[in-house]
Amino acid sequence: MSKLLTVFGATGKQGGSVVNYVLNDPTLSQLYKIRIITRDAKSAKAKQFQEGVEVVEGDMMDREFLEIALSGTNTVFIMTAPVWRPDGIGDEDGIAKTIAKVALDKGAEYIIFSTLPSIKDISGGIYSNVGLFDRKAEAERYIRNLPIKASFISAGFFMENFLSSHFFLSPRQAADGTWVMSSFMSPKTQLPFISSVQDTGKFAGTILAEPERYAGKTLGAGKLYAMEEIADIIARITGKNVLYQQIGVEDFRQTVPYGADTWVEGLRFMEELGYFGPDTKELLTASAKYVSGRLTTLEEFFHTHSFHS
């Protein structure tokens, strides 16, 4: 008998990747039936899943709706998106906690949560203004203390972010025609990147195939690239003159459209301690060995995608 996998965020990059991976995997598609939760079942992204999945429309902030939506669920994939407000990040951890608790109350047996490391904890409180990460980490702590088995996927920066003019590393064209990537970090600083659309499902699929093996574990999703290396890759693939430029912190603040303090603290942490902390390389190396399928490289991503112009 098939188990029911309920996916939050299915119309987004991560959740959509999970749904597509399971639907197209010969084994997992037989093991799991899929239910997706969406605010708008009539949206184009929701309609693409009409065949082969159950689509449930509602508000994931409504507990009564969640109790209905999670009925009969065996496994739930939880992905929550940050809500940027003038005073910081909204109640993202509260939403994730509510989903997890309702899932437990309705008899679910397993949770897969898209998490991030606690920058505040890893830095010993030095960097305490990165709610984008710390709220997910708080939700992870809560889930770990529930009497339910759970696994965690902690992703690096999304390659898809390069396609947005708001991403801090998106190349911007200078007056002389050169495309410039800029931040205050050293050109040698390494950050992990993952194609959220192509590869999130590979990590979730690995867990879904052997849930007992990965219970309690965190898989780090991404491959490390240095700032100058990224510029070289984009230049080589696109044929454009792309450079990485290290600028001052205050100049960097002017390039960030929102959450400048959060970006500065977060990137300082990553430059000094690593995206996931001191064990960043080890986590990514070990996780890559487990993951089902080969991960997309930046070279492959830019072969099929063009950054904004």
From TrEMBL:
One of its GO terms (cellular component) is nucleus. Residues 1-302 form the NmrA-like domain. The keyword NADP applies. It comes from the Eukaryota. Keywords: NADP. Belongs to the NmrA-type oxidoreductase family. This is NmrA-like domain-containing protein. It comes from Stachybotrys elegans.
